[in-house]
């Protein structure tokens, strides 16, 4: 079979629709995952015994199981257990939230705990409450250290959306699979799909580079 | 009423007793120099005053408030007791001026313009007015420590606590920090200083306390105590320091 790149433009609208779904899952999932990760990470770093234990169990459960199993559980097992049925899209977004949240929690904890203890003490010693020390002193410093590993996790999560093919979400990889099934143009279609992923991750990398350059990492 | 009162104050780290039922009163205007071998509890004693270490026995009253109250009351104590650290601990993302203005703005609720005007005066006082817009990493150790002193003063404390303020500095940089501290003492500031600088203790200190095993073993006039050590342990210690 001859390779014919000219077939690609014809499928671009379909691939673009798939990419839009991928972007939507990744964007919504990562916004939620960052918020969840921030909360769980701060619970690990500053919470009492109970909060710390809750966050620890959550992180270990997620890090210890594959994301495919997690999304299967959300989509197939949760309705049985709770009677709440979710559509594939919601399950996919939830899976990214919960999965990325666990990894981001460890990134957040590491970044906050890497800020020298003396700076916290200096803030407390002037009579600031703990939360102001976190928001005004430790937080801004930790944020700068957060960006490189956070960017890494964003890219991993973006690519993880391809695994939601298993629950039938019409994201980019599944779109590629569907086109393939009708015309068998494997080289052309999977090349196009790979290039679109590269464009997405490349854009993410460029944005992160920009943010990193904008602020000095202290 | 004394500004700082230790009443049978103890501090344990697990099974380790770092402060052993200490009784001590410090009056306004005193410059108390704390010395002692490492592990004798001198830094812990200092850090209990502003609650960076929690006492585990007895009581400790600062400016009429017990450190045991915690919360808002403890924060009131901390506003009245400024602290200078061995490692300076300046906020690296802020300029010298922002470091000094930070406390007044966030603790005392001053407006930015007013806080920065005051901060500039304080930087001038420690001889660093022209360095106001430098970040800490662009300053020498001695300059950083002088900014740290200005930062602590900016909250307008009644007492200043110094935790080995010159120990991380090269000999030639120690002097500029000691000069600022001397000036502060002359202005009548109440100071509690953990240090190995016996020259400072002799010239500036109004009282010298030698600690051993979590207890105060010698408490007296610096010149008298240094010239005529009342215990062999102190005599031995002084020989090693000087």
CATH topology of chain A: MetI-like fold
Name the chain pair with the biggest interface and residue counts per chain: A-B, 17 and 25 residues
CATH superfamily of chain B: P-loop containing nucleotide triphosphate hydrolases
Class from helix and strand fractions of chain B: alpha/beta
CATH architecture of chain A: Orthogonal Bundle
**Contiguous helical run count of chain B:** 9
What fold name stands as the CATH topology of chain B? Rossmann fold
Low-confidence stretches of chain A: none
The count of domains of chain A is 1
Cα(first) to Cα(last) distance of chain A is: 56 Å
Determine and state the CATH class of chain A.
Answer: Mainly Alpha
Distance between the termini of chain B: 36 Å
* Average of pLDDT of chain B: 94
**Shape descriptor of chain A:** flat
Q: Helix content range of the residues of chain B, please? A: 25-40%
Q: Any guess at the CATH architecture of chain B?
A: 3-Layer(aba) Sandwich
Rg over C-alpha atoms of chain A, rounded to the nearest angstrom: 21 Å
User: What structural class do helix, strand and pairing data of chain A support?
Assistant: mainly alpha
* Strand order within the widest beta sheet of chain B: 6-7-8-3-9-10
Gyration radius from CA atoms of chain B, angstroms: 18 Å
Strand tally of chain B is 10
InterPro entries (chain B): AAA+_ATPase, ABC_ATPase_HisP-typ, ABC_transporter-like_ATP-bd, ABC_transporter-like_CS, MetN_ABC_transporter-like, P-loop_NTPase
Family (chain B): Belongs to the ABC transporter superfamily.
GO molecular function (chain B): ABC-type amino acid transporter activity; ATP binding; ATP hydrolysis activity
Protein name (chain B): Glutamine transport system ATP-binding protein
